[in-house]
Specification:
single chain; elongated; 11 strands; 41% helix; alpha/beta; 4-stranded antiparallel sheet; 227 residues; 5-stranded parallel sheet
Amino acid sequence: MKLLLVEDEKRMAQALSELLRQERYEVDTCGDGLSGLAAAKEHPYDLIVLDVMLPGMNGFDIAKALRQGGCRTPILMLTAKSELEDTVRGLDSGADDYLTKPFMAEELFARLRALCRRNLPSDDGTLSFGDIALDTHTASLLCTATDRSVRLSEKEYRILQYFIANQRQILTREQLAVKVWGFDSDAEYNNVEVYLSFTRKKLAFVGAKTTIKALRGIGYELRCEDV
């Protein structure tokens, strides 16, 4: 699980990073708002832990900018303030949850687990978007309009899973390469293009109107405009 921690207090950041790594999170840290926003936009994190009071750009504005840009990554806000209006402002800015300092590590972990569960498949084990459903048990793609299905390769499945989890968000080749092949992989960007082509062919095979659109110079987006 890849997590971004944006916290300007060095001792707090170091302590939280160590605790999170003990819980088997892979943690990147940023000490100011602008670098935190840039990192959140550049890398495909599974969770963002975001302090409110930051130099350069506060957590409220970071969350708002990320949501306006289409980022759907769960955000947990940390703050020393406990006033109701600050909680409301944080949630209205786009945060999914809010934790007031000081807090117990167990509560932090519980809230992060709860945020992760929100992105889990439905009870029948499917992830859905438009006219497609992805079966997480069999790695099969189903078009709900035609009732046709096809088995996906591991990479095709992971590509569609990532797109559905980040639906209506533009994903770059770099993000796809990291998420599907991993940070330590030597896969080149042409591998992304090849497997995107394979995945598009599977979507066409089942008769889906959902497709992966290329946005020149920007990235890719999962779309189903006719459903």
